[in-house]
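REQUEST ID: PR-0412
SUBMITTED BY: lab tech R.K.
PRIORITY: routine
TASK: structure prediction, single protein chain
INPUT:
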Amino acid sequence: MSRLMIEASTPLCLLQDAGRFGVRHLGVTQGGAADWCSMSWANWLLGNELDAAVVEITLGGFAVVAEEDCLLALAGADLGAQIDGQPLAPWRSFRLAKGQTLRFTQPLLGARVYLAAPGGFTAPKVLGSSATVLREELGGLDGMGLPLAKGAALGYSGEALAVREMPSALRPDFKTHAPLDLVLGAQIGQFSGQSLFDVFNRTWTIDSRADRMGIRLLGAALQYQGAPMISEGIPLGAVQVPPDGQPIVLLNDRQTIGGYPRLGALTPLALARLAQCLPGAKVRLRPVVQDVAHREHVEYLQGFKDR
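STATUS: complete
OUTPUT:
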């Protein structure tokens, strides 16, 4: 087995894969890569299964040293990656020689980058996944839900392929403020008319109160006019509106049930884009029907097979 030794890390650097499914009835949340698109492309660059375990690096502060020559891949944000001080752009596979250090400094564009290794990083599966969820103490290198720490080893055993680069036309543009598609939910008609106008016609600001559980959007206070709700299941991307009227988009490490009214849920593609937004970024919401969102999602997945 080949290994990378972790030289530096932060509590925001986690081992992730596609997440856990079929366990929400046990109160266990999904977990998994916040930007599943970038995770999938990082694995695609190496010929891995698209859901193979990767390192999710948020905001930088991570570094590894190669114990032997290896081929790795990066996809997602530009966090100022360097190999022994030389800049390395994402969206490509690259060679790291024995003894060289790969380091991530600070966000230059986007918030999260994904580091992949041939065959995926090796870790025990807990409830079918290696995804790290700190709150539930599940996943990660030892299965106990801990973040990656200095001195730990990242092992992998897959076969290295040729160096590969993702076509520029397929790379998301993190500089633009693309609208985030929202599939309308059951309580949408119980918000005031002014609130419904504001949701889709005003700009929202990403609050600093954001983590893998949820991202708060700051803007016009929304008014719910319906009856009090009984707690119900919470899907990935649900947009809840608490009493202060400021929406919260629930992400991979969300709770499994909740009682706040919901505008609906962001599509998986919109969630991946949102995961790359830093605090202070501006976003817009756009309504979409479920059939259209599903078709776009299927077409996106097909793109991995066509290349």
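NOTES: Residues 180-305 form a domain with the Cyclophilin fold (CATH 2.40.100.10).
REVIEWED BY: pending
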